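[Archive record]
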Amino acid sequence: MKLHKESKGTITVATILFIIISVLAIYFLKMWSLLIIMPILIIYSLVFWFFRVPERNILEHIENVIAPVDGKVVMIKEVEETEFLKGKAIQVSIFMSPLNVHICRYPASGKVTYKKYHPGKYLVAWHEKSSTENERTTVAVETATNHQVVFRQIAGYVARRIVFYCNEGDQAKAGHEFGFIKFGSRMDVFLPLDTEIICKIGDITKGGLDVIAKLKN
């Protein structure tokens, strides 16, 4: 199983803790040590599972907006996007549980025109105000169809580390990685009002594969 580069520090710490706890359990509990070691082993294995990098066949997209993460669509509504678009847009929000793949992918192809990191709170990721009050990043891409697509990584109550690798001027390719969020959170995508929304609330998405919307050409 291929692991993401963001896993190195976490897996190192998890391995050290697992060894220490196992040694202490065996020393003090003897034959009863498995009662401690087995649950810890399951948690240790989940750390590796969380940082997995699945093989995915990413296609070329021009008008299609692609799911940026694995997760569940929890919101589709018209909102006022005040940071970059400074106007009305359709917001599509996808919530990620700790068991989802947490690679963050470009939802649209084009040129990165804006990026910014915002420190903030750690409200639960499905809270509506988390989009504007939590720790977050905002990225905008100008597409080949001359639309601005804005998307936002949002930290949650558990997720306390967001990374993004893109810079202004970069060429974005829909479905390809631009960042990572550790341990459960949310991504919002802001689309023009005339966008055809294909997904619906409750849909389970696969990042880089599922089409969630289509831009007007």
Residues 64-214 form a domain with the Glucose Permease (Domain IIA) fold (CATH 2.70.70).
